[in-house]
Structures are given as structure tokens and as C-alpha cells.
Amino acid sequence: MSVLRCAAHAVRAPRRALHTSARCLIDRHAHEEHERPGYALPTPFWERALLGVGSALGLLVNPSRGDLLTVLTQVSSFPNIDRLVAQMRATHEGRRLMAARPSINSRTIDLEALWALPDETFGKEWVRWLRANRVGPDGRCEARHMPTLETRYVIQRYRETHDFYHVLLGMPTSTLGETVVKYFEMAHMHLPVAALSAVGGSLRLVNDDRRALQRREHAQLTAQLQQLAPWAVRLGRNVRLPLIGIEWERRWEQPLAELRTELGLDEPPPVVLDVYQAPRFASGARTHVAGRRFYGWPSKVWERHGHKDPRHAASTESRPASP
């Protein structure tokens, strides 16, 4: 029942920026936390099924819940995790990773040094992608539901290197970009979480296009996905090396085009997306009340009735005027 209490707390807990935890940022290497006595949570099949269904439904409602994605990644990976462990053991780089178990985060990687690299190198383009999409490399070390040290590290490595696939494929952090990357991961790694995320992302894109048509706007996301998804699946199947076993830390200075050719990812996408376009925030009416920001219909309610609530007046008076 401790697993259920932990899951319930994760669902109720407020979402942290970049889904980081203090413990993840304090430790230099995530595997040190994984090896702490009492870290792992024994999770029988029925609890994994319950956690998987709950986290999947939660992600459909709010895809930005990184804590739920972490749980879903772990509990759904049991049928295929041994395959990824075998892939990591099969190469010299992978065996070196398994022995050293390095972490990829802002404490172990000198982002400023990577930014100083020449343009078009893998390290420079990765940092450029991070800055353009306003994301960071921290907060992806949770692996409490995995049974062994090796499976914990493989899940950690899978989550820490996810952004590299965005750079290799030229995909932003938009719903379309994330869905295309999940199709790629599904074809290459055969992880259930990738397939579930690809399906969920596709449904959200269809719904976004439906709303655009209702507003008499141009709907193009579904058409773009129909072109990009087969391309991503084809690339995922034809990757020349198992990506889970690549020591990316030794490839920062490698030209990105050369790395793509080495991995067999040099086929251009049928639809070119702006990978460095800053993500757009929610549009529409906004209202600040007691330090909270409301969009859409909640803002309409506050604009109409908020003056009856003293918090609305206090928030309006304390908020600085817009430039």
C-alpha cells in the first residue's frame, strides 16, 4: 500500500518547474540515490497496472505532468526493460556506461563549455535547443519502481537522453514534436510508454485541429503528423546503433550532421518544423487572483464577479501595471 500512497501523493502534489526534485539536484550522480537502502518500492503486477492506468489517464488530461510520466515509464517498462539492458551490455560504450553509471544534468555537464563549442556540433546544438525551448537537463532520475540497479540506470539513461532525440530529429517541444519523437522511440526501443504517449499525443493533435476548425482557423497538425509519423517510425527501425548504449558525453564535439549519418538518421523530414522556436504560452483572456493566473472561462468569471471577492481587489492593486 506504500506504493499507492506514494502515487496518490504524486497526483496531489503541485507540479514543480521542470519536474525537478531536490534530491535529484543535490546528488552528482543519480545512481547514488538509486543504490540507497530502501529506495526501491516492490511493485507487484496489480499495483503496476493500477499505477499505469491512473498515470496514463492523468497524462491525457495534463501532458505536462512529468511526475506521472515518470511513473508510467517505470511501471509499463517491465516487459521490455531486459531488452534495453541487453542492448546496453552489447556494446563497448554501453558496458562502460553500465560500469560508471554517469548522469546527465546541469551539475555533471558544463553547459557553458558546450555553448562555447563551434556551431553545428552536437553539444552546441543541444544547448541551443535547450535554451530555445526553455527546458533544462535536470530532474529525471526517479526510478523507484524498477527492481534492480541495472534496470534503474537504464530507465534513468532513457529519460536523461530523451532530449537528444529531439535534436537529432529536429523536433521542438510542442505537442507535435513530442509525439513524433515518441513514434521514433516506439519503433526503436519498443517501450510501451512510447506507444501510449504517441497515441495520446495523436489524439490531442486531432482535438486541437477540431477546435481550430470550430474557430474557423487553419487546421494542419493532423496532416503534418500523418507525414512525420511514418518517417519517425522508419528512422526508429533503421537506427544503426542502439541509442541506449551510446556514450553521448564523448560526442559533444562531433558535428551533428556527421552523427546523424553515423546513426542512419540523415533522411530529411517531410515537414520541417522550427526546432528553435520558443514555446507559445496559453493565449486568451487572463486574470490574476491571489497570486494565481487564470485563462479562458475562469478569467471571464473573475472579470465578471471578481470584484465581489476581496482577494481580487488586493491582487489587482498589488500587481504592477503592464508596460
From TrEMBL:
GO cellular component: extrinsic component of mitochondrial inner membrane
Gene Ontology terms for molecular function: 4-hydroxy-3-methoxy-5-polyprenylbenzoate decarboxylase activity; zinc ion binding
Compositionally biased intervals (Basic and acidic residues): 304-314
Topology in the lipid bilayer: Peripheral membrane protein
Cofactor entry: Zn(2+)
Binding site for Zn(2+): H162, D163, H166, E178
Protein family (similarity comment): Belongs to the COQ4 family.
Name listed for the protein in its UniProt record: 4-hydroxy-3-methoxy-5-polyprenylbenzoate decarboxylase
Gene: COQ4
